[in-house]
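Hypothesis: this fold can be encoded by more than one sequence.
Test: take the structure tokens below, design a sequence, compare later.
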């Protein structure tokens, strides 16, 4: 055994904040993940369960810049079943938030005609008062009644108060449309630019891929709609009054949500026939969203060319590699890397320290269990050695870390029940015992597996047990 000084407890262990540095023993995979993030390449992670594939996928997303585009679907009034796609950059979206406010203007500066129509200025005496007050406080005349001729009401269609008045003004030698608006006790004026921004902002849009999305998207591949998107059914068939308009029913797939980010697919081989669609999406970087249930009213709706430019991380068990569609595999290989996950790492002081870091990480991540003392740490490390031997017939430290994490948490629970300040050796030993697969527990209890099954059937010993 190597001579290593364990810390007094995991309390003294420094845990990295960078998610990439939390992954231990997979240096090769990390190396490729860094390249893939910088160069936008795909990755296939092949290997045993619980060795950090999902963890690496998540960490990779942290290496990517934040997304720059928002994708929305907007109504196409001419042809509602072919909604328009709208792609706006972060800058566009932020600028729009800034500009659309009109300019605040003093009531005395509002042009006389406009001020009169708003009820801001008395038509008779010209004094200014709030539009909500119907009678001029200065001359006592009714602001909303005509005074010039008794027939005004008929000729001009009456004099109702107008909160919005459109007019034209000459700005820099050019005639422009201008809006004056009375809102919340103030008058605002919008020039043509502010008006068009205001219109833009008020376009009803269905933002299907937002700017503040998570760029790590995990798909199980269990359903076609989850991966590729869908258009929801509307029992009213998108009827203009009672139905929901088609553009509002468009739902993105994981491939779209992962635009500019990472699409992580576990058990890539489970995708089956969907692998073909995934391949198309990777080649085109665009994929139409359409209703995928032929009996639904969504089936007639379609948005073409929805962007889906993602980095694929596919995870796979070694045995399943044959079920991968060859063109998909070659697509990944031709534009990325295949990495075999390690299951064991060399037993040296540096790596022992990494296991110590891992123990501390797991305890901190759990949040409800106490720290482990130095003796407990030593027992866990010995278990990591034993597991390398048992599961991989190798000398070293196991990297099948989900299982080891399970033992740490279980030991933590025993320590908590004990009201112990630390996880101690005895808690770890108990956890190791409890975590043994049920077959091993039965073997220990009954001497042999055979005997244990026999006792289930009330047989005191197996008939030809002596043969074994
Ligand atoms: N290399 C590692 N470094 C640090 N912790 C790890 C590592 N591998 C696994 N773990 C721990 O085990 C947990 C499970 O790992 P993860 O989900 O990444 O495994 P996986 O390879 O994706 O497994 P599966 O094939 O079952 O999906 C992690 O959340 C982490 O706590
Ligand atoms: Mg996983």
């Amino acid at each position: 055994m190597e001579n290593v000084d364990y810390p007094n407890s995991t309390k003294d262990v420094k845990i990295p904040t960078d998610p990439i540095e939390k992954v231990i023993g997979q240096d090769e995979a990390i190396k490729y993940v860094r390249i893939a993030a910088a160069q936008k390449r795909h990755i296939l992670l092949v290997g045993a369960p619980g060795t950090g594939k999902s963890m690496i996928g998540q960490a990779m997303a942290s290496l990517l810049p934040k997304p720059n585009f928002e994708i929305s679907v907007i109504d196409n009034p001419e042809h509602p079943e072919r909604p328009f796609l709208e792609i706006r950059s972060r800058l566009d979206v932020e600028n729009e938030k800034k500009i659309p406010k009109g300019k605040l203007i003093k009531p005395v500066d509002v042009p006389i005609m406009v001020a009169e129509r708003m009820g801001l200025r008395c038509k008779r005496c010209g004094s200014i008062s709030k539009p909500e007050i119907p009678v001029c406080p200065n001359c006592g005349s009714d602001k909303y009644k005509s005074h010039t001729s008794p027939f005004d009401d008929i000729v001009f269609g009456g004099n109702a108060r107008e909160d919005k008045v459109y007019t034209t003004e000459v700005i820099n030698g050019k005639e422009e449309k201008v809006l004056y608006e009375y809102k919340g006790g103030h008058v605002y004026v919008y020039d043509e630019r502010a008006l068009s921004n205001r219109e833009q902002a008020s376009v009803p849009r269905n933002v299907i891929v937002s700017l503040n999305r998570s760029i790590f998207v995990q798909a199980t591949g269990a359903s076609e709609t989850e991966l590729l998107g869908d258009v929801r059914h509307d029992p009213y068939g998108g009827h203009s009054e009672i139905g929901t308009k088609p553009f509002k029913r468009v739902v993105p797939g994981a491939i779209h949500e992962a635009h500019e980010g990472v699409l992580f697919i576990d058990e890539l081989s489970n995708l089956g026939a969907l692998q073909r669609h995934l391949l198309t999406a990777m080649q085109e970087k665009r994929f139409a969203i359409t209703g995928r249930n032929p009996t639904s009213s969504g089936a007639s709706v379609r948005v073409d060319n929805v962007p889906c430019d993602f980095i694929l991380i596919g995870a796979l068990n070694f045995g399943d590699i044959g079920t991968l569609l060859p063109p998909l595999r070659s697509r990944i290989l031709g534009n990325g890397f295949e990495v075999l996950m390690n299951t064991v790492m060399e037993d040296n002081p540096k790596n022992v320290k990494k296991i110590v870091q891992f123990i501390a990480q797991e305890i901190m991540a759990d949040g409800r269990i106490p720290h482990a003392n130095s003796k407990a740490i030593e027992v866990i490390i010995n278990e990591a050695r034993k597991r390398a031997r048992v599961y991989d017939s190798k000398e070293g430290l196991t990297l099948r870390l989900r299982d080891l994490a399970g033992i740490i948490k279980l030991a933590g629970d025993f320590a908590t029940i004990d009201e112990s300040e630390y996880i101690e050796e005895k808690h770890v030993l108990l956890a190791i015992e409890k975590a043994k697969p049920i077959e091993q527990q039965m073997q220990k209890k009954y001497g042999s597996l055979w005997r244990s099954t026999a006792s289930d059937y009330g047989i005191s010993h197996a008939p030809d047990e002596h043969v074994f």
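Residues 153-158, 461-468 have pLDDT under 50 and may be disordered. The CA atoms of residues 446 and 452 lie 5 Å apart.
Hypothesis status: open.
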